[in-house]
């Protein structure tokens, strides 16, 4: 009986200890950590970091100066995007990149980067038919050879995405999890108990030692983009990697990419034509 109790205790301990909070890579009130640097329009208040105020043509961001050395990790970002207006823009982004974010046209940072970006887009820039509604969350993996195309909402380089009603809640929580080469994004909203899955993508390859940060931008339309906290966790997922592998040298890549939004209708039309042709041929 005692052995069973010990076994259950050890099993529970393993579950509890499967993630470890990394203080130096986390952003929490009252924001006194020396490892975070802000730029642009960012203003630090006692209870939140405001990347942009509800004014036009603003860019701001904040990034961690300590590279993240965890092989598998999870970010829990609590934020508040809000305005009293109905027409708003543009949104904010989370970055895990070789170089820290800095002023640029991609939600307040550079449109060319190496690593991972998760975009929280509140305004549809692309004209024509859309395959999703805004606000929209999407991910992009970049080896430094591609540009984020803001005019097309990044659809040509999108890895995966989902529509999300994260605006004008008192708070929303985004969980970005990278473990065993799988990227998963989920959302939790004010007044809800369970998180909502946004997307899960296997075959994602990211190196260690990159920098984390968030940035936001407004254009002709505007919004308040507030960050309450970023909690960073190292995950113990039982990897069995070669201990001599230098994970900092992994090339950022993904085994798949989502079909560009402008191509979704063409793909559907082609498949429908192919199906009708086969039916005609068989009959």
From TrEMBL:
Its main location: membrane. Pfam families: Lectin_leg-like (PF03388). InterPro entries: ConA-like_dom_sf, Intracellular_Lectin-GPT, Lectin_leg. Residues 14-235 form the L-type lectin-like domain. GO terms for biological process: endoplasmic reticulum to Golgi vesicle-mediated transport. GO terms for cellular component: COPII-coated ER to Golgi transport vesicle; endoplasmic reticulum membrane; endoplasmic reticulum-Golgi intermediate compartment; Golgi membrane. Keywords: Membrane, Signal, Transmembrane, Transmembrane helix. SUPFAM superfamilies: Concanavalin A-like lectins/glucanases. Residues 1-18 form the signal peptide. One of its GO terms (molecular function) is D-mannose binding. It is found in: Membrane. It is a single-pass type I membrane protein. The keyword Membrane applies. It comes from the Eukaryota. This is Vesicular integral-membrane protein isoform 1. It comes from Schistosoma japonicum.
């Amino acid at each position: 009986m005692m052995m069973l109790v010990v076994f259950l205790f050890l099993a529970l301990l393993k579950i509890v200890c499967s993630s470890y909070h990394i203080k130096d890579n986390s952003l929490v009130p009252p924001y006194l950590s020396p490892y975070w640097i802000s730029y642009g329009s960012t203003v630090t208040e006692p209870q939140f970091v405001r990347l942009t105020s509800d004014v036009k043509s603003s860019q701001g961001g904040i990034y961690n100066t300590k590279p993240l050395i965890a092989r598998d990790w999870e970010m829990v970002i609590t934020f508040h995007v809000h305005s009293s207006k109905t027409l708003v823009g543009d949104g904010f982004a989370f970055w895990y990149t070789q170089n820290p974010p800095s002023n640029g046209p991609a939600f307040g940072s550079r449109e060319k980067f190496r690593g991972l970006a998760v975009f929280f887009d509140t305004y549809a820039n692309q004209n024509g038919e859309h395959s999703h509604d805004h606000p929209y969350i999407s991910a992009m993996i970049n080896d430094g050879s591609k540009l984020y195309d803001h005019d097309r909402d990044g659809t040509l380089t999108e890895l995966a995405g989902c529509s999300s009603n994260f605006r004008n809640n008192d708070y929303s929580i985004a969980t970005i999890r990278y473990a065993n080469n799988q990227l998963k994004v989920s959302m939790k909203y004010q007044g809800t108990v369970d998180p909502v899955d946004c997307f899960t993508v296997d075959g994602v390859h990211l190196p260690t030692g990159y920098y984390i940060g968030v940035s936001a931008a407004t254009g002709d339309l505007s919004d308040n983009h507030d960050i309450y906290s970023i909690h960073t966790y190292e995950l113990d997922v039982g990897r069995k990697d070669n201990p001599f592998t230098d994970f900092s040298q992994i090339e950022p890549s993904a085994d798949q990419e989502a079909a560009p939004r402008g191509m979704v209708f063409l793909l559907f039309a082609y498949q429908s034509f192919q199906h009708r042709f086969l039916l005609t041929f068989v009959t």
